[in-house]
Structures are given as structure tokens and as C-alpha cells.
């Protein structure tokens, strides 16, 4: 028997479970469990991906220069301070790898994204869970939880799965209140859904302890292609560049991402349509007795009367071929997260939940 042992923390990792994507024996399944874009990627992005796939015998760009320039143009950021990753997940992990290890603490909040404790454990650091206030990140609680050992604070803004977000004043207070040597990571996976939000760019430019991560998986509709990016202080980006694999992004993915970034009209269309359908969905659910917090993202956190009701509703919808995300594992046992779909999907999900409320059984 081999006695080789993994590094401390790794066996504490509970495997991440993604949103379900199929139901046995059922066609025409409606997947609203992974916050994917129902309108898909930009046509330009799809064309660019196919074109790039014709040269797959060539290694991809190693500095991602052309994608970083496109991101810099669209978001008015310095490309030298942008790093691209294999999904934003790779960058979020690299941040922990770079700055948190044995004896260090990594903070995140009770309903925070399920990957944050994994990044801490994977690097032998201590995950620290901090309470929220009514499903909103609590800046005071985070600041009181900080110690000399705190190295990283991860928050998603807007947050997943709650959909709530902090305003600029709270973000500033959080960044300014962190102990020296700690880094605030603003996970901006849903930032593009918020009109006029810079995802923390101005906060980052004004200090040296904040970094933001972004993704092509949500509003850009490229979750399957695996592309994300981060923008932060030069010193932090220089560290991450050393950890990054030289060919971490495929050439087709790079081409698709660049075209998607430059197709500002498609992004804008998706943002506007999402906001419209989200408002309709939240209102229609509230009319049948299911409240939700105001969401700033592309999903709604539907609150049921009890854990039993939420689970039963989730099971009923699965039996009808509608996949949602039950979020008991996020400390929200009476809640289901519903991705905002196109108009027909929103109507279908509300109709099915209405049938459940009227007593329909699996
Ligand atoms: C979906 C999501 C991501 C994106 O992950 P990728 O690796 O970029 O696909 C990151 N953070 C949160 C909170 C998310 O919900």
C-alpha cells in the first residue's frame, strides 16, 4: 500500500456539485440551475471560435495580448493589469495559492459561493465563515472576523446565490478596514448585469489591497469555453502571472472571448432583457406567495415557507423537466435559486410552481 499523503486540507474539500443538466428519460428539459445565458453567446463569438478551431495545431497566445486589449478597451482598464484565466475559477484559486497557506485565514460569508472554502482548503489555509445579515454580506461582521492571520476575503458582488449586493460606500469601508497584508477579492461574476457598476475598478485604482475577478461564463454566454479575467494592483497581477500556466487558455476560447467582449451590443441586449424578465419573474412569484430579495444578477432566490416545501417544489419541478438549484447546502434550506430564462422559460417555471402551490404532486 502506497503511504503517500495529500497536502493538509485537501481531503477536507467537499466536491463541488454543479447544476443538474438532465432528467432521465426526459426531453425538452429546461435548465435554470447554473445561471447560464438563455440567449447564448454573441454570433461574432461563435464565428470566431469556429474560425480559430481551424488552426488548432498551433499553440495559443501565451500573453493573451489581444484579449487583454479588448477587455481594456471595453472597460477602460490598463491591459497590463489584466490577467486571463481558464474561467474566473482558475484565477480565484491562484489568488489563494499565491497568498494563503498553512496558518493563514481565508474569509467568506455564510451564503457565499461554495468554491471559496475549496480554495482555502486546497492551499492548507483555514476557511472562516462569517455571518450575513438577512442574506446580505455584513461588512461589520467581516471586519470583526479579521485577525492578523487573515490573508484573503472573498465576496461576490452581486452575490450568488442571494443576488444581493453591497454599494460603493460599504465596499470602500470593507477595503479600508482590512488588516495590512490582507487582500479583498471582489468576485464580479454577475457584475455586468448591474447597469453602471464598474465592478470595483475605481476602488482597485485607489488602493493596493483589492482585486476583481470577472467571467465570460455568465452574461457573455461562454461557460463551456472557460474564460475569465482579473484586474488588480500591478504587484498582485505580477505574482499571479508567475503561477499561471503559459497556455492556460485555448486559441478558440481566446478568439471567442475577444469577439464576445467587443460585441457590446449583444451584452447590452442581454443585460436589458435579463432585467426585464427578472422583474417579471420576481413579481409573478410574489403574486403566488413566494417572496425574494431584490436581485441584481441573472437569478432569483425564491423563499418558500419551509425546507419541506422548497424540497417538494424542487422535486415537482424536476418531474416536470424544469431544473432549478435547491440551495440547502448554502445555508438556505427554504430557498431555491432560479436562473432568469427567456420569456417562455420564465412563464413555464412560474406556471409549474403555481401548479405545485395548487397541490400538484410528483
Ligand atoms: C459562476 C460563478 C463564477 C464563474 O466561474 P467561471 O470559472 O468563470 O465559470 C465565479 N463566481 C461565482 C460566484 C459564480 O457564480
UniProtKB/TrEMBL annotation:
Transit peptide keyword on record: no
EC code: 2.6.1.9
Catalytic activity: L-histidinol phosphate + 2-oxoglutarate = 3-(imidazol-4-yl)-2-oxopropyl phosphate + L-glutamate
SUPFAM superfamilies recorded: PLP-dependent transferases
GO biological process: L-histidine biosynthetic process
Domain Aminotransferase class I/classII large: 28-353
Transmembrane segments: none
GO MF annotation list: histidinol-phosphate transaminase activity; pyridoxal phosphate binding
UniProt pathway: Amino-acid biosynthesis; L-histidine biosynthesis; L-histidine from 5-phospho-alpha-D-ribose 1-diphosphate: step 7/9
The keyword Acyltransferase is assigned to this record: no
Cofactor(s) annotated in UniProt: pyridoxal 5'-phosphate
Enzyme class: transferase
Domain of life: Bacteria
Key words, A-Z: Amino-acid biosynthesis, Aminotransferase, Histidine biosynthesis, Pyridoxal phosphate, Transferase
UniProt subunit comment: Homodimer.
HAMAP family hit by this protein: HisC_aminotrans_2
PANTHER family according to UniProt: HISTIDINOL-PHOSPHATE AMINOTRANSFERASE, HISTIDINOL-PHOSPHATE AMINOTRANSFERASE 2
Family: Belongs to the class-II pyridoxal-phosphate-dependent aminotransferase family. Histidinol-phosphate aminotransferase subfamily.
UniProt protein name: Histidinol-phosphate aminotransferase
Lineage of the organism: Bacteria, Pseudomonadati, Pseudomonadota, Alphaproteobacteria, Rhodobacterales
Amino acid at each position: 500500500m502506497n503511504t503517500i499523503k495529500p497536502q493538509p486540507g485537501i481531503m477536507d474539500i467537499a466536491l463541488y456539485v454543479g447544476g443538474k443538466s438532465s432528467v432521465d428519460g426526459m426531453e425538452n428539459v429546461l435548465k435554470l440551475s447554473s445561471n447560464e445565458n438563455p440567449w447564448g453567446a454573441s454570433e461574432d463569438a461563435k464565428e470566431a471560435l469556429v474560425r480559430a478551431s481551424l488552426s488548432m495545431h498551433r499553440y495559443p497566445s501565451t500573453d493573451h495580448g489581444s484579449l487583454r486589449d479588448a477587455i481594456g478597451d471595453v472597460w477602460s482598464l490598463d491591459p497590463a493589469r489584466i490577467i486571463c484565466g481558464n474561467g474566473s475559477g482558475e484565477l480565484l484559486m491562484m489568488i489563494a495559492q499565491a497568498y494563503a497557506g498553512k496558518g493563514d485565514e481565508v474569509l467568506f460569508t455564510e451564503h457565499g459561493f461554495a468554491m471559496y472554502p475549496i480554495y482555502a482548503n486546497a492551499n492548507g489555509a483555514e476557511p472562516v465563515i462569517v455571518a450575513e445579515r438577512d442574506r446580505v454580506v455584513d461588512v461589520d461582521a467581516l471586519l470583526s472576523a479579521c485577525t492578523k492571520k487573515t490573508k484573503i476575503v472573498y465576496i461576490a458582488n452581486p452575490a450568488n446565490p442571494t443576488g444581493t449586493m453591497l454599494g460603493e460606500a460599504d465596499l470602500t469601508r470593507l477595503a479600508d478596514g482590512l488588516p495590512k497584508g490582507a487582500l479583498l477579492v471582489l468576485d464580479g461574476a454577475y457584475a455586468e448585469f448591474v447597469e453602471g457598476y464598474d465592478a470595483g475598478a475605481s476602488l482597485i485604482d485607489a488602493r493596493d489591497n483589492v482585486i476583481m475577478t470577472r467571467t465570460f461564463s455568465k452574461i457573455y454566454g461562454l461557460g463551456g469555453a472557460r474564460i475569465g479575467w482579473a484586474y488588480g494592483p500591478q504587484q498582485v497581477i505580477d505574482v499571479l502571472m508567475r503561477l499561471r500556466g503559459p497556455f492556460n487558455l485555448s486559441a478558440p476560447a481566446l478568439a471567442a472571448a475577444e469577439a464576445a467582449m467587443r460585441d457590446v451590443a449583444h451584452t447590452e441586449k442581454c443585460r436589458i432583457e435579463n432585467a426585464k424578465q427578472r422583474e417579471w419573474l420576481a413579481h409573478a412569484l410574489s403574486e403566488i406567495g413566494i417572496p425574494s430579495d431584490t436581485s441584481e444578477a441573472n437569478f432569483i432566490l425564491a423563499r418558500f415557507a419551509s425546507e419541506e416545501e422548497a424540497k417538494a417544489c424542487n422535486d415537482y419541478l424536476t418531474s416536470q423537466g424544469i431544473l432549478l438549484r435547491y440551495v440547502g447546502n448554502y445555508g438556505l434550506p427554504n430557498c431555491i435559486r432560479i436562473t432568469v430564462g427567456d420569456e417562455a422559460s420564465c412563464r413555464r417555471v412560474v406556471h409549474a410552481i403555481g401548479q405545485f402551490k395548487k397541490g400538484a404532486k410528483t
